[in-house]
Write a structure and sequence with these properties.
Protein name: Adenine DNA glycosylase
Structural class: mainly alpha
EC number: 3.2.2.31
InterPro entries: DNA_glycosylase (IPR011257), Endonuclease-III-like_CS2 (IPR004036), HhH-GPD_domain (IPR003265), HhH_base_excis_C (IPR023170), HhH_motif (IPR000445), MIG/MutY (IPR044298)
CATH superfamily of the largest domain: Hypothetical protein, domain 2
CATH class of the largest domain: Mainly Alpha
GO molecular function, one term: oxidized purine DNA binding
Oligomer: single chain
Order of helices and strands: HHHHHHHHHHHHHEHHEE
Distance between the termini: 63 Å
Catalytic activity: Hydrolyzes free adenine bases from 7,8-dihydro-8-oxoguanine:adenine mismatched double-stranded DNA, leaving an apurinic site
Strand content: under 5%
Number of helices: 15
CATH architecture of the largest domain: Orthogonal Bundle
């Protein structure tokens, strides 16, 4: 039995019942889930994914709506530029591929906002192809089980892809199953702070456990602070604009945060990122809501 065999056997019994894993899920549904799951827990993504797929069950449906509707529908899921990327991705899929999410990895990677991880995840989970799919969870599992280290560092490297590919079975369908199994192990068993080693299918062979579960040599990464940050202020400003039925005045936006400097910086950042459009000195709307001639480039 290989690590992949053990992981698949464990996954077959323990996999979470998630909507984007259902047999009738389309490649578009898989793509939407992968974008939503970036830096966002499953418990928050599941209801958002269901709502999104009900409204826009295929790329053409989203592409036909303005970008502002994608930002509104994103709600408080966080990192709202992902909504813009999904909208741009839907438009590109319609224009380049007749509305069908491509199966070729190269074509997936050429879509707006689709990077190394997302492209391989869609090719693997939607089309059953054999690609190393490496996120934080997978890197942690492989690093511990194979290399005997507690974590794999802050970013995915080419070496991580090579290490994961070496563990995949040759058969495409089984390799795809192994990829999702490794990911699930890292998400619910081989977690960063409280791994459940007794429940792990690699318990008897894990190099990290056999070396005594050594702790990281450097300081542990702390969760990013949210309260009081520009991210929080941006979210508050977007919340007002999402629920507005027309342009919102600067005076109305001034009410959401007392710190004038931070508030202005957050608003300027939203405009610069393309999430918000400036209609003039005192009026703002979500991107896509303004007639083209009304948008101003400066504050």
């Amino acid at each position: 039995m290989t690590l992949a065999d053990d992981a698949i056997a464990w996954f077959d019994v323990n996999a979470r019942d998630l909507p984007w894993r259902q047999p009738d899920t389309t490649p578009w549904g898989v793509l939407v889930s992968e974008v939503m799951l970036q830096q966002t827990p499953v418990v928050r993504v599941e209801p958002a994914w269901r709502s999104w797929m009900t409204r826009w069950p295929e790329p053409a449906a989203l592409a036909a709506d303005p970008q502002s509707e994608a930002i509104r529908m994103w709600g408080r899921l966080g990192y709202p530029r992902r909504a813009m990327r999904l909208h741009a991705c839907a438009v590109a899929i319609v224009e380049r591929h007749g509305g069908r999410v491509p199966s070729s990895l190269d074509e997936l990677l050429a879509l707006p906002g689709v990077g190394t991880y997302t492209g391989r995840a869609v090719a693997t989970f939607a089309y059953g192809q054999r690609h190393p799919v490496v996120d934080t969870n997978v890197r942690r599992v492989v690093c511990r089980a194979v290399e005997g280290k507690p974590d794999a560092g802050p970013a995915t490297t080419a070496a991580d892809l090579t290490a994961m590919e070496a563990l995949l079975p040759d058969d495409e369908a089984r390799a795809a199953r192994a990829s999702i199994a490794f990911m699930e192990l890292g998400a619910i068993v081989c977690t960063a702070r409280a791994p459940k080693c007794v429940d792990c299918p690699f318990h008897d062979v894990c190099a990290w456990r056999l070396t005594g579960l050594p702790l990281p040599e450097g300081p542990s990464r702390k969760p990013q602070r949210y309260a009081g940050t520009d991210r929080q202020v941006r979210g508050l400003l977007l919340e007002v604009l999402r629920h507005a039925t027309g342009p919102v005045s600067r005076q109305r936006l001034d009410l959401v945060w007392q710190d004038e400097v931070q508030r202005a910086r957050a608003l300027a950042g939203l405009v610069e990122d393309g999430l918000v459009e400036n209609l003039g000195t005192n009026d703002f709307v979500l991107a896509g809501d303004a007639p083209r001639g009304d948008v101003q480039s400066l504050f």
